[in-house]
Amino acid sequence: MRVIWQGQSDTPRVVALGTFDGVHRGHGELLDTGIRLARREGLLLRACSFDRHPLEIIRPDRAPRMLTTIPERAALMARTGVDEMLLLRFDRQTADMEPEAFLEALRNMTPLRAVIAGWNYSFGRGGRGDAETLWKDGREHGYEVIIQPPVTAADGTVLSSSAIREQLESGNIARAEEMLGHGYQLSGRVGEGKHMGHRIGVPTANVGVWHLKQLPAYGVYPCFMETGDTVYRAVVNIGLQPTMPSGKVTVEAHALEDSPELYGQAVRLTLGPRIRAERKFASPAELAEQIGKDREDALKWFGMA
Asked: What three-state secondary structure class fits 80?
């Protein structure tokens, strides 16, 4: 799959519109619809998204944390079979575009054979563009419009990025994973930490996660830690380290079987269910004792103990 920033093409495309944060099961059904249509027509499917959440520009105080970085989103889309991900820059000028001008810009990039969007997709100035706007433009300019209905979980909950964020904020990884249709991941490069783990005999990798990434509830989680072609079984602490505070939120992963040197390497953590919530201990010795218990719980989850 190609990630592109300029979408000019003389060849028609099937275009899927959306934020696609998390590329969850609802997004998956929408993209599957687009892929089937594109393959039937012998065309490419282009997923059209923005380089940031629109609320970062429109209402910064209400902008949500993101479920995926752009590389994570691209990797998940590639797995679904999307051919191109077009990233449009979202700035104040974009926010002020009328819906009709936004659709005209899409048509000027490539001839549209079909456009697919979710039932609640809105676009253009003030979010005034909706399904009716798309249908009207499609009739006028000769392309098909498909509006994907909502996808629900077994209990009837409509699948959405905001609903998944709520599950992560409560530490319910299993529920978030069910709604996503894949594991929840944190990625970043391993940087310099305070070496507290080394001092108490538990070396950790300090993973520099994107500052806008949605973190789960603070606590301890088993995880798969991938770097390159190597996968380690690990346990990760996410939070403020209240016993030996660093003054910032950290993501500290400890490989259970090996002691790899990961400094400077890009790693990806796929989280399992929370072992325990974060709490403050009376001393570093008490913390070290608890870490030993956390290790045992993680080993049990992996079936290694």
From this structure: helix
Residue 169 covered by a domain? no
User: Residue 213 has what DSSP assignment?
Assistant: B
CA angle 244, 173, 251 (to 5 degrees): 30
Q: How far apart are the C-alpha atoms of 131 and 234, rounded to whole Å?
A: 45
Question: What number of H helices and E strands is found in the chain?
Answer: 10, 13
255 touches 234 (CB < 8 A): yes
Going by DSSP bridges, is the β-strand pair 230-239/250-255 parallel, antiparallel, or unpaired? antiparallel
Cβ(261)–Cβ(301) below 8 Å: no
pLDDT one-digit tens code per residue, 127-176: 999 999 999 999 999 999 999 999 999 889 999 999 999 999 999 999 99
Q: Are residues 214 and 280 in the same domain?
A: yes
C-alpha 69/C-alpha 231 separation (Å) is 21
Q: Which one-letter amino acid corresponds to residue 74?
A: A
Cβ-based neighbour number of residue 86 at 10 Å: 21
Extract the tokens encoding 233: 């079984």
Count of the separate structural domains present in the chain: 2
> Which residue range forms the structural domain that includes residue 249?
184-301
61 secondary structure, DSSP code: G
